[in-house]
C-alpha cells in the first residue's frame, strides 16, 4: 500500500505544503519564510525556505532565480552544518543543471548531493539524488548504464510505500521501454504510474503519466484518446503553474498530431512549445521542439535542402547537450524525409 504523496523538498516550517500546492503560492510562502528565518538568524530554516524558493522557481521556468536560490540555500545549510540540508540544496542545483541542458554538471552535482545525503543520514535526499542521476543518464539515452539503477530505486520506493518516488521510477522505466519499442510494457508501466499517482493525490506525477500513456496510444494510432489525455494533463499543469511540464505537454501534442498527418496543427503546437522552452532557457525541450517543427515544415512543402541544413544543425546541438537518443531521432527524421546523409539530398 502507498501513502499519500508528500513533497520532501518542502522542509522545516514549510513541511505542511502539499505536493499539489500551487507553485506561485509555494514561492510566496517560501520567500516570506526565508525573510523571517534570516531576520531571526536561523540558518537551517533559511536553507529549508531557500530550497522551496529554488524548486518553485525552477518549475515555474524562472531559472536565474532558481540558480540564486539553491546556492543561497546551500550556503545557509553549510553555515548550519547540516549535511542533509546541504544535500537537498545541491540536488536542486543538479536538477536545475539538467533542466538547463548541462548534463555533465548535473551528474557532478547530483553525485555530490548523494554523498552529502549519505554522510548526513538523509535517506530520502539520497534517493532523490540517485534518482536524478538515473534520470540524467536516461535522458542521454544511456539505458544500459542506468536501467539497473532505475529498477533498484523502484524496488526501494515500493518497499517504503513512497508513492511519488514509485511513480517517478515507473515513468522512467516506461520511457526507456517506449523508446526501445516495447510498447506493451511501456503502456502497462505508465498506466500503473497513473493509477498510483491518482490514489496518492500526486497530480503532477499523474499528469506526466498521462502524457506517457498518450504517447504510446498515439504510436498505436489512437489519436483522439491521446489528445484527450493530454488535455486532461494540461489542466493540471496550468492549475499548478508547471511551466516545464506544460511545455512538454504541448510538444507531445505536436508529436501526436504529426503522427496523425495533421501537419499544420503539429507545426503550430511545436512553434508554441519552442517559444515556451526558449522563455525558460530549457535547451533540451527547445531542441526537441525544433526537430518537430523542422519535420512538420518539411511535410508542408519546405525545401528539402533547407530541411537538411536544419537537421545537420540539430544533430550538432543535440550532440553538444549529450542527448544520444535524440540524435538518433534526427537520423530517423533524415530517413523519413529522404535525406540519406547529413547535408546530402538524394538525387534519384
From TrEMBL:
Signal peptide (from-to): none
Classification via SUPFAM superfamilies: TPR-like
InterPro entries: TPR-like_helical_dom_sf, TPR_rpt
Name of the protein described by the UniProt record: Tetratricopeptide (TPR) repeat protein
Amino acid at each position: 500500500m502507498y501513502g499519500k504523496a508528500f513533497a520532501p523538498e518542502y522542509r522545516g516550517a514549510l513541511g505542511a505544503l502539499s505536493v499539489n500546492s500551487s507553485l506561485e503560492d509555494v514561492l510566496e510562502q517560501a520567500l516570506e519564510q526565508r525573510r523571517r528565518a534570516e531576520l531571526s538568524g536561523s540558518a537551517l530554516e533559511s536553507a529549508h525556505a531557500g530550497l522551496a524558493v529554488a524548486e518553485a522557481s525552477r518549475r515555474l521556468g524562472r531559472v536565474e532565480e532558481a540558480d540564486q536560490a539553491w546556492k543561497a540555500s546551500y550556503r545557509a545549510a553549510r553555515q548550519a552544518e547540516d549535511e542533509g540540508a546541504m544535500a537537498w540544496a545541491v540536488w536542486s542545483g543538479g536538477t536545475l543543471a539538467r533542466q538547463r541542458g548541462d548534463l555533465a554538471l548535473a551528474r557532478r552535482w547530483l553525485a555530490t548531493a548523494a554523498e552529502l545525503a549519505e554522510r548526513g543520514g538523509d535517506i530520502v535526499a539520497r534517493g532523490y539524488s540517485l534518482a536524478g542521476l538515473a534520470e540524467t543518464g536516461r535522458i542521454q539515452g544511456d539505458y544500459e548504464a542506468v536501467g539497473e539503477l532505475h529498477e533498484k530505486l523502484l524496488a526501494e520506493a515500493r518497499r517504503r510505500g513512497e508513492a511519488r518516488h514509485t511513480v517517478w521510477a515507473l515513468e522512467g522505466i516506461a520511457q526507456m521501454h517506449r523508446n526501445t519499442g516495447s510498447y506493451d510494457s511501456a503502456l502497462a508501466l505508465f498506466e500503473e504510474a497513473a493509477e498510483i499517482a491518482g490514489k496518492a493525490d500526486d497530480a503532477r506525477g499523474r499528469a506526466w503519466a498521462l502524457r506517457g500513456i498518450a504517447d504510446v496510444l498515439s504510436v498505436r494510432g489512437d489519436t483522439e484518446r491521446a489528445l484527450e489525455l493530454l488535455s486532461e494533463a494540461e489542466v493540471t499543469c496550468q492549475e499548478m503553474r508547471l511551466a516545464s511540464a506544460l511545455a512538454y505537454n504541448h510538444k507531445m501534442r505536436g508529436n501526436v498530431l504529426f503522427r496523425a498527418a495533421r501537419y499544420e496543427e503539429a507545426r503550430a503546437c511545436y512553434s508554441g512549445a519552442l517559444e515556451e522552452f526558449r522563455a525558460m532557457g530549457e535547451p533540451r525541450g527547445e531542441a526537441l521542439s525544433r526537430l518537430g517543427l523542422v519535420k512538420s515544415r518539411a511535410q508542408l512543402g519546405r525545401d528539402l535542402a533547407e530541411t537538411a541544413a536544419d537537421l545537420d544543425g540539430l544533430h550538432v546541438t543535440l550532440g553538444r547537450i549529450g542527448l544520444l537518443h535524440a540524435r538518433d531521432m534526427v537520423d530517423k527524421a533524415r530517413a523519413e524525409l529522404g535525406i540519406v546523409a547529413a547535408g546530402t539530398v538524394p538525387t534519384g
